């Protein structure tokens, strides 16, 4: 047992891999702590743990509202956060980006990750604080270097399209992702029990599109052709990504993430029967692997353009299915059934509408989603040039909601069973 004292904050456990092969469980720090980056560490409690220790077991009664909703628990109102809630629409972010123009620097430096992640938390107090990162962030840690250009976006100089290309892959080296673990730990200390800290990953198919195509694409022709011309290579790649992403999720949870969103952003580019073959089994395997280590951590699956995949998404085993804005929430609820919770799905364009119109749409979506197992979100990320006052209004409206008022004539909460097994 090694003791370290940290100024302030509530107690929680988080785990970060060390070179020694042990894990470090940390008591919550406040914003002044930047592991090795600032000198004002006092001492309070760090303890070394075996790598075999599972993810921290959540306390069901004291979990943040978002985590409770993800489990289908009865709560007083829907929690809310926004995809891309930290970013270019915020003036404070644009000012910081001028000083640090490289996205890789902003998303791979602990102080900057923490600052950017907390910008919308300070401004709007959402119920979820998602780490500022990218689905491609872990690629170099398992053998796939990439760069990001301002115009072209991510660039992978050596795409993997054959057996020779597979030779560059190796098991994920989590030591190269310590900046993610440290940032999540600090975020937990910052928000305490007032909000949930979210981590996220890309699904194997979506990550593979970048690795095979060499970057972004509008057609996905190379990887779609590969399904037929080199299926054995694609299977090996997807299997490797599945293991790496599973390890990365567990690492994020042990570092402090209380909920994980899996982005299969480009899964909607596949016909449903093709998604069933080339994406779903790998997501299902990730969910199974994470469940063994982190059984209390809710998993959310979001696919852009998922209207044709909704019923199939439930078979992955996730706790929450995110709906995009093209799906009617009431229809989505019917199609999902009672065994999975739902997230979404206000059209991001409503944030450009008059505020009373936005209010009405929030009320409509919440009523269509029902009074349990719903996380309010947009149906896609916050758009560039979105007015900050509209984002503030969105969260103000949600905080003022009450299920008892919205569903006065509906069945009592205590007559309902939780939607999920957690």
CATH architecture of the largest domain: Alpha-Beta Barrel
Give the overall shape, derived from the CA principal axes. Answer: globular
**What is the number of independent domains?**
2
Give the structural class: alpha/beta
- Oligomeric composition of the shown chains: single chain
How is the main sheet built? 7 strands, parallel
Amino-to-carboxy terminus distance:
32 Å
Secondary-structure element order, N to C: EEEEHHHHEEEHHEHHHEHHEHEHEHEHH
Strand arrangement within the widest β-sheet reads 5-8-9-10-11-12-13
Gyration radius over CA: 21 Å
Task: Write down how many β-strands occur, each being a DSSP E stretch of 2 or more residues.
Answer: 13
- Which bin fits the share of residues in helices? 25-40%
CATH topology of the largest domain: TIM Barrel
What is the residue-mean pLDDT, rounded to a whole number?
A: 87
Write down the CATH class of the largest domain.
Alpha Beta
Protein name: Uroporphyrinogen decarboxylase
GO biological process, one term: chlorophyll biosynthetic process
Pfam families: URO-D (PF01208)
Catalytic activity: uroporphyrinogen III + 4 H(+) = coproporphyrinogen III + 4 CO2
């Amino acid at each position: 047992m090694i003791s370290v004292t940290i100024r302030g904050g509530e107690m929680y456990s988080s785990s970060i891999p060390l070179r020694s092969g042990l894990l470090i469980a940390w008591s919550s720090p406040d914003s002044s702590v930047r592991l090795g980056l600032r000198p004002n560490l006092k001492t309070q409690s760090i303890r070394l743990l075996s790598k075999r220790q599972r993810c921290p077991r959540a306390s069901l009664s004291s979990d943040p509202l978002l985590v409770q909703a993800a489990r289908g628990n009865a709560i007083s109102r829907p929690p809310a956060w926004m995809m891309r809630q930290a970013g270019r629409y915020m003036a404070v972010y644009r000012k910081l980006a001028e000083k640090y123009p490289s996205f890789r620097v902003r998303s791979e430096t602990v102080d900057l990750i923490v600052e950017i992640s907390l910008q919308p938390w300070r401004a709007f107090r959402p119920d979820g604080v998602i780490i500022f990162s990218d689905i491609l962030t872990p690629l170099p840690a398992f053998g796939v270097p990439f760069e990001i250009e301002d115009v072209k976006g991510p660039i992978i100089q050596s795409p993997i399209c054959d057996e020779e290309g597979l030779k560059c892959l190796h098991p994920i080296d989590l030591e190269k992702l310590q900046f993610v673990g440290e940032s999540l730990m600090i975020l937990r200390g910052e928000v305490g029990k007032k909000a949930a800290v979210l981590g996220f990953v890309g699904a194997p198919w979506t990550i593979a599109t970048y690795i095979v195509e060499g970057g972004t694409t509008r057609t996905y022709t190379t990887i779609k052709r590969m399904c037929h011309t080199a299926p054995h290579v694609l299977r090996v790649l997807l299997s490797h990504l599945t293991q790496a992403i599973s390890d990365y999720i567990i690492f994020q949870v042990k570092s402090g993430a209380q909920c994980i969103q899996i982005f299969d952003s480009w899964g909607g580019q596949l016909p449903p029967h093709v998604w069933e073959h080339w994406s779903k089994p790998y997501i299902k395997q990730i969910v199974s692997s994470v469940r063994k280590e982190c059984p209390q951590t809710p998993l959310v699956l979001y696919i852009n353009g998922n209207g044709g995949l909704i019923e199939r998404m439930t078979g992955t085993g996730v706790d929450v299915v995110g709906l995009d804005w093209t799906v009617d929430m009431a229809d989505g609820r019917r199609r999902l059934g009672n065994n999975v919770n739902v997230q979404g799905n206000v059209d991001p364009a409503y944030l450009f509408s008059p505020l009373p119109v936005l209010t009405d749409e929030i009320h409509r979506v919440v009523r269509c989603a029902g009074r349990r197992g719903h996380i309010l979100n947009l149906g896609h990320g916050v758009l560039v040039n979105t007015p900050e006052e509209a984002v503030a209004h969105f969260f103000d409206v949600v905080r003022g909601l009450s299920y008892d008022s919205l569903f006065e004539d509906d069945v009592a909460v205590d007559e309902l069973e939780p939607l999920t097994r957690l």
